[in-house]
Amino acid sequence: MSLKVFNMVKSQINKISNNYNINKNISAILQAPNSVIQTNFPVKINDKYEIFQGYRVQHNNICGPYKGGLRFNENVDINEVSALATWMTLKCSIQDLPYGGGKGGIAINPENYTTEELEKICRGFTQSMYKHIGATIDIPAPDVGTNSQMMNWMTDEYDRLSIARNKTLNTKATFTGKSIEVGGSQGREEATGTGVAICVKEWANKKGIDLKDKTYIVQGFGNVGSFAAKKLESYGMKLIAVGDHTGYLHHKDGFDVNDLNNYIKEHKSLKGYGVGESISDVKDFYALETDVCIPAALEMQITESVAKNLKCKMIVEAANGPVSEKADAICHEKNIDIIPDILANSGGVLVSYFEWLQNKQDYYWSEEKVLRKLEKNMTDAYGKIHDLAEKNNSNMRDACYYYSLKRIETVYNKRGIH
């Protein structure tokens, strides 16, 4: 699966490069990451040393330091991380950020370890990656299976190592997604999901659609899915179906998002939630009639067979790469709009950038200011991509890739690299 995802990213870059006026040398450079770092580090678990394998892929830094999350998930491998790092390069470019793309992770299920063990793993990973990361080199952040507490431990370990090496610099800006008390930004936790919802609002505005009482479904009710749902509910929309790794539920009258979110926070999954009717299969979930479909789980969830039965008006890719290439083509044949991942979920890296700026200045913004800037940047980004799609008579995905690649090409040209 991960190789298919990586090949899909390369195919998307090739498609735009071949169909539009993109320098073929730039396209070739972006086909492979600058650096692939693999590390094996020991951690003492239950009086025995366990060897963990960690990855960090640094895709491209022509626009600035590498930027991207750290994923703790059993399915993490080098192909998946390479694909995600490439998307991060494109995502940062869409938002005009002074970053390139990176991604990393460890192939573990964090639920199999205690809090104390996870701290040891985070510190061990930081030690193994110390020379490869830094506030002007590569800036990791949370992703699937990681959180602000893990970034706190990594920040502390990086700081400890820097002091031991007589590098007493401000190291807070090396990691983003930290707790507020450790230098994190207000608004970071809800940033990605809120950005997804803002894209839905802008799509509706451009279409002249009133979102009140419109319906949506969400696959994956973690950080991104839950905050997207919370924001969409504030627009008057109804969540009529939800799913996670334990199953799927449908409730035609709409779920109470706050109640659902509280249940999942307590029980860690949908299992046992006593509202709605159970749906046995993911294909049946995606076949529900709804206005907006939000895949917010992992890659390649909407495949060709799933796409054939879709009955939605729009898909917003809250996850990275949730729609396969063949499914993408079917959606366009069915006139289902798609807001692509590199735009839809870019709110996370946007507020990570805000956190990085605040850390470097040692001056912190209010939540109101952060969310106001998030709203403006996401609205502006959606607007420029929408206008470009209309100008080029293309879909939103092609417009996103074209804008991103063209900006990267311009930076290479300005640097004298052709």
Describe the SSE topology.
Elements: H1 2-19, H2 24-29, E1 35-45, E2 48-60, E3 66-72, H3 78-94, E4 100-106, H4 115-129, E5 138-142, H5 148-164, H6 191-207, E6 215-219, H7 223-234, E7 238-244, E8 247-250, H8 257-267, E9 277-279, H9 282-286, E10 292-295, H10 304-307, E11 314-316, H11 325-333, E12 337-339, H12 341-344, H13 347-361, H14 367-392, H15 396-414
Parallel strand pairs: 3-4, 3-5, 6-7, 6-10, 10-11, 11-12
Antiparallel strand pairs: 1-2, 2-4, 7-8, 8-9
Mean pLDDT: 95
Whole-Å distance between the termini?
34 Å
**How helix-rich are the residues, as a percent range?**
40-55%
Please identify the structural class as seen in this structure.
Answer: alpha/beta
Second CATH tier, the architecture of the largest domain: 3-Layer(aba) Sandwich
**Biggest sheet record:** 7 strands, mixed
Number of helices: 15
Question: What is the number of domains?
Answer: 2
Number of strands: 12
Uncertain spans: none
Q: Rg, please? A: 21 Å
Helix-strand string = HHEEEHEHEHHEHEEHEHEHEHEHHHH
Question: What is the CATH superfamily classification of the largest domain?
Answer: NAD(P)-binding Rossmann-like Domain
Could you tell me the CATH topology label of the largest domain. Answer: Rossmann fold
Major sheet: order of its strands?
Answer: 9-8-7-6-10-11-12
- CATH first level of the largest domain: Alpha Beta
Indicate the overall shape. Answer: globular
